[in-house]
Specification:
By secondary structure, the chain is an alpha+beta fold. The chain has two domains: 88 residues, no CATH class; 79 residues. It is 54% helix and 15% strand. It contains three helices and five strands; from the N terminus they run H-E-E-H-E-E-E-H. The chain has a three-stranded antiparallel β-sheet, with no helix packed on it. The protein has a two-stranded antiparallel sheet with strand order 1-2. A hairpin with a 5-residue loop joins strand 3 and strand 4. Keywords: Coiled coil.
């Protein structure tokens, strides 16, 4: 049974045969094919030659009949588990990913997370710089006010000196 399923699937999946009869007194067995990803599963199902049917739950399956070495006819129902309807009738939001695409996606997510952390760090530094600039502007305004006050005092002292010089000159003329 493993060889038949392997030949039908044309893939590198692993098979597990339960070796348990599904019903009493009949020759029905159950086997599972495990695929690396949903794309591989989909391709294997599509490559199987058989009559497509739906089970009682509406899941797609293919009935495959073949001749055994003992000249008896056997049949296998291969169930599609990834999608519940034909691929053409379901608009996929995202295509089926391969392992490489999934690895790239995880890698790009890590890179995006690192970039976001870096951006957050830069934004924090920018806020700190803006705060420091605002503080320096306040200090500059205060220094400008101090300079204006000193200029007024200087002008007042100049006026007083000029007044005293005029008084000295006037006293010298009187003598």
């Amino acid at each position: 049974m493993k060889e038949v399923l392997t030949a039908l699937a044309h893939s590198n999946q692993h098979l597990k045969n339960n070796n348990k009869k599904a019903g009493q007194g009949n020759n029905k067995y159950c086997a599972f094919a495990i695929f690396k990803n949903s794309l591989e599963e989909h391709n294997a199902y599509e490559n199987i030659q058989g009559t497509e049917l739906k089970d009682s739950n509406g899941k797609l399956q293919k009935l495959v009949k073949f001749q055994l070495d003992t000249c008896n006819t056997a049949s296998i129902l291969v169930r599609k588990t990834a999608l519940h309807e034909p691929r053409d009738s379901i608009p996929l939001k995202r295509g089926l990913k391969t392992d490489d695409e999934d690895h790239i996606s995880k890698k790009s997510k890590r890179e995006d997370d690192a970039r976001l952390k870096e951006i957050e760090s830069l934004n924090e530094r920018l806020k700190e710089s803006e705060s420091e600039i605002a503080s320096l502007r306040e200090q500059l305004k205060q220094k400008d006010l101090d300079i204006e006050a000193l200029m007024l005092q200087l002008n007042k002292k100049d006026f007083e000196i000029n007044l005293l010089n005029e008084m000295v000159a006037s006293l010298k003329k009187r003598r």
